Amino acid sequence: MLKTLRNIIKAGDSTIAYPFAPYPTVPEMRGKPEHSLERCIACAACAVACPPNAIRMETKVSEGNIEWQINYGACIFCGRCEEVCPVEAIRLGDQFELAVMSKPDLIETCSYELQRCSECGKYFAPKKEVDYACRVLSRLENDEEAENAIRVAGLCTECKERADAYHARTIARSRQEGVH
C-alpha cells in the first residue's frame, strides 16, 4: 500500500486543475466574439453572415438609431462575423466559458445613430457607415465619380435619385447647347 501511494505522489497529477486554474488554449482557438463599439460602422455584414442568426440588427427609425445585438447562447463560434467585417470590429477571442445565471445575460446590445438626409430629413443609414464610405472615397484622388459620391453621401435614396436625374439633365442640356 505504501509503495502504491509513493508511486502516485511521484507521478503527479494526470489531469489539469480546471476549473480551479485557467484552461490552456491554443492561438487558433475560436472563442466568444468580441465586438468593438468604437470600430463598428453598423453595416450589418456580420448579421447577414451569421448562420444561426445570433447577431441581429434592428432599425428604429422613430428613435433615429439602429440596434446591434448578439446572443452568445445562439452563437456557434464559426467566425463568419470576423471574416466579413470590413473594419475588424468583431474578433473571436479565447474566452469560451459563458456560464451565466440567466439567459438575458448572454445578450450584448449596442446602439448606433442613423444619418438624416440633408434634403428631406429622413433617416436612411447608420451615420458611422456613411462617414466610413466618405473616408474610403476621399482616398481616391482626382476621381470625379468619387467626388460626386461624397457630395451626395448625405442624401437618402430618393433624394439621391432626384439629384442624379437633375445632374444628368444638366449634362445633357450642356451637351445640346454645345452642339448647336
What does this structure look like?
This protein has 180 residues and is α+β, with helices and mostly antiparallel strands. The chain has a single domain, classed as 2-Layer Sandwich (Alpha-Beta Plaits). It contains six helices and six strands, in the order αβαββαβββααα. It has helices at residues 2-11, 45-49, 80-84, 127-138, 144-151, 157-179, and strands at 33-35, 55-60, 65-71, 90-92, 107-116, 123-126. A hairpin with a 6-residue loop joins strand 5 (107-116) and strand 6 (123-126). It is elongated. The model has no long low-confidence stretch (mean pLDDT 89).
Could you list some keywords that capture this structure?
180 residues; alpha+beta; Alpha-Beta Plaits; 4-stranded antiparallel sheet; two-stranded antiparallel ribbon; 6 helices; 35% helix
Give a topology summary:
Elements: H1 2-11, E1 33-35, H2 45-49, E2 55-60, E3 65-71, H3 80-84, E4 90-92, E5 107-116, E6 123-126, H4 127-138, H5 144-151, H6 157-179
Antiparallel strand pairs: 1-4, 2-3, 3-5, 5-6
Helix pairs in contact: 4-5
